[in-house]
Each structure stands twice: as C-alpha cells, then as structure tokens.
Design brief:
The complex is a heterodimer of chains A (about 450) and B (about 375).
Chain A (H helix, E strand, L loop, with lengths): L5 H9 L6 E7 L3 E8 L8 E4 L2 E3 L5 E3 L13 E3 L2 E2 L2 E2 L2 H13 L12 E7 L5 H15 L3 E6 H4 L5 H5 L12 E7 L4 E7 L2 E2 L5 E3 L3 H15 L7 H11 L6 H7 L10 H5 L5 E4 L10 E4 L4 H7 L7 E4 L2 H10 L11 H10 L6 H5 L2 E4 L8 H12 L8 E2 L7 H11 L1 H6 L1 E2 H7 L1 H10 L6
Parallel strand pairs in A: 1-9, 9-10, 11-18, 18-19
Antiparallel strand pairs in A: 1-2, 2-3, 4-5, 4-6, 7-8, 10-20, 11-12, 12-13, 12-14, 15-16, 15-17
Chain B lengths: L29 H7 L4 H7 L10 H15 L25 H8 L4 H16 L2 H8 L1 H9 L5 H9 L2 H17 L7 H6 L4 H11 L2 H5 L1 H9 L11 H5 L4 H8 L46 H9 L5 H4 L5 H4 L17 E2 L6 E2 L2 H15 L2
Antiparallel strand pairs in B: 1-2
Helix pairs in contact in B: 9-15
The chains are: A alpha+beta (about 450), B mainly alpha (about 375).
C-alpha cells in the first residue's frame, strides 16, 4: 500500500531539498545504536549508547553515554524509557536523545531540520505509542523526513547469504526470504520476511528477554549465595560472562548435582568443566567481575573466611539454566512455548510452500544470541519439529547486537527508504493518523 | 503464637467481603464430573483437563504469578530517578506543542497503555448499534472515493478474513483515538492555526457519524483529481467514530495508488533463474526424490504481504489446546536447581533430596509456621 504515490513525490519536489544525511537509530530497551548515513559516506558501525538514566550508590546520576564515566557499578539503579521494547516514557527518552544528538556539545550532533530519521520499533506496537513517537519526532524535533519501521525487518537489507557463507554471485537487497529471530532485552520475536516485507500474521513474540534472564539469575544467586537484588549491573555482567546454552540439559544438570546427603559425586567435586568461579568486584581494587576456572575448595574456604579478600561465587547449573528459559519458559511457570515452538507456530500461520525457504534462512540477532551454543541448540530444536526433508540453517551475524542498525543503514541508501519516508510537510498536511497508516501499510507490493 | 490456642484462619484483609456467596449451581462441568467418577482409570488419566495443573494449588499459582511479575520488573526497588538538571546552564526552554507537552508529562506505563488499548478494542467490538448505523453510507462513499482501477484491490482485501480487516480498522481507529486520550484540550488546539491534525481531533469529539457522512462527498470530489493519495486527511474524523465498518473501508483508502505499481498477474517471488546444480547420476532415483510442497499462489502471498499487523496481545505466542499438556512441565528443586523429585508436604514446593528438603524446611517454617 504505497500511500505516497504520485502525489507525495510531487509535493516533495516542490518542497525543500530532501536531506542528504540520515540519522539511523535503533532505539533498543537496553542500548541505542546510532549513526549517520549519507549517500557517499557512512559510519561503518554505530555508536552504542546505554538507553537509561542510571544512579550509583553515591546518588550520582548518569544519562546515556555518561555511564562510560562510571567506575563503580555496585548498587546501580536504572530508569529506562523503553518498556517492553517500546518507547513509553518520553520524558526520559527525550533527555537522553537531547544529550546524545541535539545539545550543543552532543557527541553525535545533528540538526534535525536537515536530517532524515530512520527509527526502529518492535513489531506489534500499540497505536497510541506509535502516534506519540511520530508526534515527538515531527512536532518536537522537526526532522525533515522520517520513517519508523519494524526493527527485525531491516536485517533483510544486509547481505544475508554471506552470514550463511553461501557462495553466490549477486546480492539480493532486500533478501528474498528470511526468518528473523530477534532476542533482545525485553522479548524475543520471530519475524518471517519476504522481500523486505514482514509477514504480519506470522509474527510471534515470546516474553522472555535479557531482562527476565538477568532477574532470574539474580533470584537464583540470592537464594543460593548472596543477596544480589540491588546489583542488576553486576549480575548482568556475570550473565554475559558465564551463561551458556546447554546442548545436553539433562546431562549437564546431572553433572552439577551435589547428590544426596553424604554422597560425594565425582563430577560435583571436580566441577565437570561446568562449574566456574566468579570473583565479584569489590569496588576498591577492581570494578568488574572476573571468571575463573573452578578450583575445588576455594569458595568453601572463602565462605569460611580464611581467604576473605575477595567474594567468590561458584556457579554451576546457574550457568545454563538461565538461557534455558528461552527454550523452556515453562520451567519458571511462564505459559508460553519456547523459541523453537515459537518458530513452529509462526510457520503454521503461513502456507507450507514457504517453509523450506524460511527454515533454510534463519537469522538470529539480539544480545541473547551471543550465549555460547545458542545457534546450535536452536538448530537442533527446530530440526526436531519439522519434516526431515526441510533443511534448517541457523546463522548469527558476527555482530548480532548492531545487526539491525547495519541493516537499517543499508536500508537508508536503498530506494525503499525514499518510498516509505514521510516528510514533515506531509505530516503537517495529513496528520499523525495518516502517517501511522502509511507506516503500518509498509511497502505494499511492487514486483 | 500464644493466642490461647486460637488459630486465626482468615487473613485480616478479607473482612469487608462476606465469607460466603450464593453461587448458581450449573451442574458439574465435564472435567469435574470425570474427576469425581472416572469411567475408566486409563481414560481418566488421559482426559484430565490440564495435566500440569493438578499439581498446582491456588497458593502455588499465586506464588508463580508473583514471582513472574517480580522477574518482569526493571529493578528490585522502584527506582525514581529524576532527570538531572543540565550541566551547562539551562537549555533554552523552547515551547512544546500541546501534543508534545501532553506526551512528555504523561506518566503512563506500558501496562496503562495496553489497558487503554484493550478497553478501546472492547468498545469497538461491543458497539454493533453504531456499526449498523453507519453500515449504509459506507458503500456509497467507497464508490465515490475509489477510482476504477482500485476495485480489484478492494475486492481482494474483502477476501481477507473479516477479522483481519476488523483488526486493521481497530488499529487505525485506535491510532487516531490515541490523540484524544486523556481528554485533549479543545480550546488550545482550536486557537492554534498551524496544526491541522489537531483540528481533526476536535471534529471527532464534537461531531457524530451522520455529520461525517455529509462532508465526505465534497472531499471525494475535490480530491479524486490528479493526486489520488489525498482523500486520506479527512478520514480520521470518520475513523474515530468507533465504528468497525467505516474504518475498515478507510484503511483500504491508501490502495488506489497501488494497482499501478504491480502487474496484476506477475509473480511475486520470481522463478529460480540461476544455473541449476550439476547433474548427479542419482537424480532420477525414486528413492531419493524429495517432495517439494506446492508453492503458494500469488494471491496468497499478496494477502500475506499486505496483511495488517496483529495487535500486541495477538502476537504473543501461546500454547494451543493440544500442545498445552503434551509434555509435563519440568519441575526443579527450589533450593539447588536439580530435578524436583520430592514435594514438601506442607507447601508443595519441590526439592531434590533430603539435604535440600531440610534447607527448604527452614524457609517453610518461617513462612507458614508449624
């Protein structure tokens, strides 16, 4: 449904010169990925800005990228403008954007009236939130033109086949068919994409994301070791450092069991290659945790106070139980299917003829996919759920966190961007509801 | 606990609710009846409504729910972090437009927005009166609005499930209605000359459906000229009248420009045009033949690619009926995380073995007493 057909093009020709630079913003719940793209030059990778207001234990407040200056992350508290993947609190979001892009001394200074904005959003947003977003972009900042698109879809504009290492001669842009799994801070979504158009009836969401996993690890640690509930930053760091996706859950669980009373299990005592010691930051000499191989006895001694200089946690099944939530959310009582069943449910909404293409082109992005073994586990789980004849390929780009941004940067140079964008003039002429409808309609069909 | 042996059973909070209620006896539900008097032991085990459920008491259910809510929160304590004042002097206080001011001051959470949206959907659905009222004028307006080539596309969209179009309508209407949430200020936006969209809002609040039917012919005549994408702007007034059918047609409005952009019988996914793989002697072997499912027709693809987005709750993955109890829920030891093989008699929590059971008992005693 190309809402802006002949009429739109004409008005743009009559209006001011179209902007040459584009600000591409992947406004995630945890971090903003931001960079400029213009016709000839473009940032080859985005700047990653923490999307939060943070307060340390001395009650000093850090906004966005100021967090880099922070050393001591103990008892850090966060306020995030993005909730469930959608920008909800504009007061905080505006403050962060202002400081990063629009203030005089902003690190990525940009003049909105001469810039095009490409902003990502999560699929299936609420209309009211979308309207808020459009109104802020045009009425507060006054961007020259703007497109707000579903984040996962932008990945189609990357060179997908090189991620799969498929030999090829030509690069399709957008990719003909991919099944994109985006596992981020707030949730995990499955989006089938055909020639850069999301197949909306088949988009599915699992409400398990990095935040839930960090909180779950916090709970496990608080029950078994120390009370870590006021240390979200430290626990998150620990999660990223030690958690892995188990390829043999039952076996690993067996290896990490201490056994019945009095039983001395060999695997438990030796750690079986799974147990790791994690040295917590002490806020004096070192400010980041350190992972060490498990040394039998160290943590026990530390607990008794013999070696009291450092706090050591021995992590055993915590290491793989946490990412397991993506595959079996029912483990903690979430009544939702795991990520592999998510794929299945998504495909069931589509004609079978599309299955082979989608299954052979599964791309995983988002921070959770960085956990070791994630792709392999996902591939085996998906294989089990589909006919033998379907070939299943799961690939993760080298940079799963910035992948959406890189895709969006390619999109900014693509002819589709000029078809989809809305100029400020059009917004003022037709209103927010029209803009929302145009964005919802997307590319429509053209081939 | 020296209450002269009196044990307080009910909690303090329930005092303003009566301890009993008349409940209509509608007879036994099939599941309950089967549980009371199973016909056959085997079948009773199989036919249980929800295999996972009997394991859970209401108390455990509540605990799980509470735990999940805690896991979903951003921080353990609710952090109220104010926005720090600017370091280098105050930023020029540029004036916000009313819309922006409203958005910036809004303290709504995502849950609030979601509730609003749900309420709106419910309203749109439970208003068949309005729907019937505006049902008649709609065909005429569409006929006037849409130039000849668009008839094909409107037909194709009609083929789509009515649910989908209804949803689209609701979404579009909600988008428009979002602007007037929290009682938008009428006076301000009327005095404000530059922003037309705001004026649209005001029309919505005042004028009812019959009025919107009147201006539409003029608009249609005025705008079916060269630029066919124009009939959109006046639409919001119609779409906000909380009526599924009118809005359903309005959502198809952007389509008039579409048919020119693709050939009516062109294939959406082009055929494979690269060199075929090198032949292999086993290619004709009947045992090695793989069956390729029929490729979806263009019409199917077209419908899929232009389908409107699902709503937030529709997109949430859920177990289907048959999958719900297919595999038993895995239970873990609440202390150490190994399989939960033993149940605490008192509270039903799972633990793995004696050692963990003892650790659990301490907590259990604190929480529930002896």
């Amino acid at each position: 449904m190309a809402g802006g057909g002949g009429g739109a093009r004409k008005s743009r020709a009559a209006g001011p010169v179209p902007p040459t630079t584009t600000l591409v913003l992947d406004n995630g719940a945890d971090t903003i990925k931001a960079g400029f793209v213009s016709d000839d030059t473009s940032d080859d990778k985005p700047r990653i800005i923490p999307n939060c207001l943070a307060r340390d234990r001395h009650r000093k407040i850090y906004v966005g990228s100021e967090l880099e200056k922070c050393k001591d992350f103990s008892e850090m508290a966060f306020r995030r403008p993005v909730e469930k993947g959608f920008i909800v609190n504009w007061e905080a979001q505006k403050e962060i954007w202002d400081r990063e892009f629009f203030d005089d001394k902003a690190p990525q200074k940009c003049n909105p009236s001469e810039t095009r904005l490409i902003l990502t959003e999560q699929p299936n947003s609420l209309p009211s939130l979308q309207t808020h977003c459009d109104q802020i972009v045009f009425e507060e900042y006054g961007f020259a033109s703007y497109y707000r698109g579903v984040g996962p879809v932008f990945n189609a504009y990357r060179d997908i086949q090189s991620i799969f290492r498929t030999p090829q001669s030509t690069i399709d842009s957008p990719a003909e068919v991919i099944l994109l799994i985006d596992s981020g801070y707030s949730h995990t979504t499955v989006t089938p994409i055909l020639q850069g158009r999301p197949l909306h009836p088949a988009i599915r969401r699992l409400d398990v994301g990095g935040k839930l996993m960090t909180n779950y690890l916090t709970r496990l640690l608080s029950v078994r070791h120390f009370d870590m509930r006021n240390e979200p930053y430290i626990v998150n760091e620990m999660k990223e450092a030690v958690c892995y996706t188990s390829l043999n859950f039952k076996g690993d669980l067996e290896k990490t069991w201490k056994g019945t009373r009095g039983e001395k299990r060999e695997d438990y005592l030796s750690g079986a290659g799974i147990a790791k010691d994690y040295v917590l930051p002490d806020s004096h000499t070192h400010f980041h945790g350190v992972v060490r191989d498990y040394e039998p006895g160290v943590s026990a001694r530390a607990r008794k106070g013999i070696v009291s200089t450092e706090d050591v946690l021995t992590l055993r099944n915590e290491r793989f139980v946490v990412p397991e939530l993506l595959f079996n959310p029912s483990d903690i009582g979430i009544r939702q299917p795991g990520i592999a069943d998510l794929v299945k449910q998504s495909l069931l909404a589509l004609p079978i003829g599309l299955w082979p293409g989608l299954l052979a082109n599964i791309v995983v992005v988002g921070g959770n996919s960085l956990s070791e073994g994630f792709c392999q586990r996902l591939q085996t789980e998906i294989l089990k759920r589909f006919p033998d004849e379907c070939r299943v390929r799961v690939a993760r780009p080298e940079d799963p966190i910035t992948s959406t941004w890189l895709g969006a940067a390619n999109f900014a140079k693509h002819e589709h961007a000029s078809r989809l964008e809305v100029t400020k003039q059009e917004y003022e002429e037709h209103g927010a509801a029209w803009v929302a409808r145009k964005f919802a309609a997307g590319l429509g069909l053209d081939s | 606990m020296n209450n002269f042996g009196v044990i307080e059973v009910a909690s303090q909070k329930t005092k303003n609710a009566p301890g009993w209620a008349y409940v209509p006896d509608t007879g036994l539900t099939p599941a309950a009846a089967a549980a009371l008097q199973p016909l056959n032991r085997k079948r009773a085990a199989r036919d249980k409504a929800n295999v996972g459920a009997p394991d859970l008491t209401a108390r455990q259910d509540a605990k799980i729910r509470k735990d999940l809510e805690a896991l979903d929160r951003d921080s353990h304590r609710d952090a109220q972090i104010p926005i720090p004042p600017k370091a280098g002097g105050t930023r020029a206080q540029n004036k916000h437009t009313p819309n922006v001011r409203k958005i910036l001051q809004s303290q709504k959470t995502f849950a609030n927005h979601l509730d609003d949206y749900q309420a709106f959907l419910a309203l749109a659905e439970s208003n068949p009166q309005l729907a019937a009222q505006v049902n008649k004028p709609t065909p005429t307006t569409t006929a006037r609005n849409s130039p000849a080539p668009s008839t094909i596309t409107t037909a194709s969209t009609n083929k789509r499930s009515s649910a989908a179009s209804k949803r689209a309508a609701a979404t579009a209407a909600a988008a428009a209605a979002a602007k007037e949430e929290k009682g938008g200020s009428n006076k301000k936006s009327k005095t404000q000359p530059q922003s037309k969209p705001a004026d649209d809002d005001d029309d919505v609040e005042m004028i009812d459906a019959p009025d919107t039917a009147l201006p539409s012919p003029n608009i249609a005549e005025a705008t079916t000229g060269p630029d066919s994408s124009e009939p959109l702007p006046p639409r919001p007034s119609a779409s906000t009248s909380l009526d599924p059918t009118t809005t359903a047609t309005t959502t198809t409005e952007p389509e008039p420009t579409k048919p020119q952009s693709y050939p009516p019988d062109g294939t959406i996914l082009p055929p494979y045009n690269r060199p075929p793989p090198t032949p292999h002697p086993g290619d004709d072997d009947p045992l090695l033949i793989s069956r390729v499912p029929p490729f979806p027709t263009d019409e199917e693809l077209r419908a899929l690619m232009t389908a409107p987005p699902l709503s937030y709750l529709e997109a949430r993955a859920q177990w289907t009926e048959e999958e719900e109890g297919r595999y038993p829920v895995r239970r873990f030891c609440e202390v150490c995380g190994y399989w939960g093989r033993v149940k605490c008699i008192k509270c039903g929590a799972r633990v793995c073995a004696l050692e963990c059971l003892e650790a659990h008992r301490e907590e259990c005693l604190v929480r529930y007493g002896l």
